[in-house]
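Hey all, quick one. A colleague (J.T.) asked me to put the shikimate-3-phosphate job into the tracker so the inputs and the structure tokens live in one place instead of scattered across chat threads. No bug as far as I know, just bookkeeping. Sequence used:
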Amino acid sequence: MTVIHVPGSKSVTARALFLAAAANGTSTLVRPLSSDDTEGFAEGLTGLGYEVVRNADHWRIAGRPAGPAATDADIYCRDGATTARFLPTLAAAGARGTYRFDASAQMRRRPLAPLTEALRTLGVDLHHEAAEGHHPLRISAAGIKGGELTLDAGQSSQYLTALLMLGPLTAEGLRITVTELVSAPYIEITLAMMRSFGVEVVRGGPGNNVFTVPPGGYRATTYAVEPDASTASYFFAAAALAGREVTVPGLGKDALQGDLRFVDVLRRMGAEVHTTAESTTVRSTGKLRGLTVNMRDISDTMPTLAAIAPHASGPVRIEDVGNTRVKECDRLEACARNLRRMGITVETGPDWIEILPGTPRAAEIATHGDHRIVMSFAVAGLLTPGLTYDDPGCVRKTFPRFHEAFAEFAELMTRQESGPENSGQVPAARR
Ligand SMILES: O=C(O)C1=C[C@@H](OP(=O)(O)O)[C@@H](O)[C@H](O)C1
Ligand SMILES: C=C(OP(=O)(O)O)C(=O)O
């Protein structure tokens, strides 16, 4: 059995940074993710005048319920959509100040409009400097009264998360009616974490789509960040593909992240899955069946499945993942083109991809600067040696040590062949 310790969750770390910064008191984040996205978030907070102290395994944030200490700042959000969507929202709630936000070329292409329109509806003075609905933007903060909003989160749930977290920082609270929603489990993470920082959101309405967020602010806390379930998907998929077994501690029955449901997809394909209170184990049975699966809720794991799909005994069809076209790259096309380079037959539609069984050959993977394309195809590389990447370093977004950790893991899995006495642990979180 191979045990892999996966680094902390990006989504949980980003939310914890927002909530801790807004809270009354000093919060401690235990085992946060250290990666380009979360370090960019923390530096953005520092630029806004928050005090963030980063130690190796815990970060301390002095909360400022009144908003940023800086009254003007120029913040660079890098590639992180959580940073690029959550931080301007936090700054907008401040009592007074003018802030400019910009992001990488990749992030500038990604949409923001439903969020920035909602902020304008709430009276925030917000100006897009170049393309409407995209970074860079300029915000003048003067406090937010609150009120009613209608939101289309059919492109990204992050718009809703940003507005939910904003609610307690407004004078009267927010009532948000959501018309469309993708990546719904991320909203569960948001609601659970707001609860940990002292705020209870009431969810109701005919479609459970109305969120009432009370005013009153957040309470500081000590928050332990769980391992990243999307990152874990590479190790689960690798075990299922390579006929092995892997256990990921820290992701058990009570895990917050919906992406842990990726193991249910592997189970449907033939793997055995065992979840305890503390961990999840995936064990190959030697079978990998094709399937049709809706991944609307867990679309960050779509590339993981696409990369191993040629080895399934039948076609793999992944549906309802149209919003993966507006991530770090157009992931449906990136997966399709790279698989075709490897000699695999693939079809795509507006929101689906279908991959036929085949024997992949080595190729250069066009990463489009997307960490998930690299990490997903690295799994495929276990059975197709010789894959190369035009930008292997883009894994820094969520897992800077990915290549070393995955190589150590692959080596340990190879040793599993000769029996459990050769089991080992990969401390992937080590940097
Ligand atoms: O809220 C979050 O932390 C995230 C939500 C999801 O985005 P979308 O809601 O845009 O699908 C996910 O893909 C992203 O990696 C992280
Ligand atoms: C889509 C992703 O990131 P984000 O939207 O947070 O930039 C991801 O990590 O796969």
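Adding what we noticed when we looked at it: The radius of gyration is 21 Å. The first strand starts at residue 2 and ends at 4.
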